[in-house]
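Hey, I'm writing a tutorial for new members on how sequence and structure tokens pair up, and I'd like a real worked example in the thread rather than a made-up one. If someone can provide the structure for the chain below, I'll link this post from the tutorial.
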Amino acid sequence: SVDMVLAGSSDSTRVVRERLVCRGIIGQQGTLEKIMSVDVVCHFVAPLLSISPKQLNFRVKGQNLPLVYKKLVLNNVSSLSLSMELTLAEPFYLCEASGEQSSTTTKSLLLGDKSQVELWVCFNPDFYQDQMSRIVDEVLENHLGHPQEDVVALHAEVHYPNLHFSSTEVDFGCVVNCTETCREITITNCSQLPVSYRWAFMDGHKQRPHGFYVLSESIQTTHLIYCFSSCKQIFDILPMYGDLQPGERQQVTFSFYGHENISKDMVAQCRVDDGPTYELKLRGEASEISYRLQPTRLDFGLLFPEQLLVDLLAERFQLGDCHHGLIVDGLDSTFTPSAANTLQVVLKALNNRKHIYVVHLADSYQALKARERAQKEAGARSSWEKRGLDTLSFCL
């Protein structure tokens, strides 16, 4: 004999009727003969699990919050036993009874037909240690070994007295020695609870009282109580403490006293009763005004607009004494900022003319005049010599 397992599946609820026929070859004939037949009837049903409620809500507020428990009822309303696995995420946990300390986030159950079971879902509000108000949304998933999955919504609200700051850093920059400057920030009670707060200064890991002071090196710490008249207050906050109702705002003023050549970084702590401690960074420095101006005189000379110079030169080049040529005697000018600008003006002025002139930049005006004088003197000597020969010839 042999055991056989018959498996079937369906994507919908229905009744399936089939006939299983077994045939085999018997003897030497080599033909198939019917050995047996079995009628198979299968009822495909959906796993019907009733979960109540479909959403669990948790709401806690204040400090030293206890664990909160909510009951969950699972009822198998189908005609089959259900094997299920429940899973959820922290800070929610599964418990057998209210008040039980549990860290279980996964639980397997076998629920018979027409039976039910009670479970407890625990929420731990102290899972987050920052004492900040928050809303946590998770789901409890129920896997039935079936494409169908049931979920339960988990919604939790944790409320602490909290504040919101318009800025977490106050930078006074650099001020003139022995002056005072102020900055303002806005604090808002963003929670649903009343807030009581107070400020303290932190220098390193040491707490300072109202206002932060620097003591003279000559003052002994044992005489601290008598030395406030010799202290230098650097930072101050007003108001140092207060109460805010939900949604209420308040302006807080930070002051920096710029003692001579001081530079200081400080942390101001805002401590909320039954809530978190906030830190703000304070920074300020003071210095004297010192500057040097070099040079003290700027001589721009007599500068003309470039287009005006171009127009003037173009008009000058049209005169009669410029018809035979043009000589540029250097490019230095008091009317332009540089020799390059002078050359640019000259070339633009020449470009406006109908005639072409040769510009000899390598020669100078003095050299030109010297050559002209030499040519005149040479011409004069030649004329006198010729005249002398004529006279001599006449005499002969």
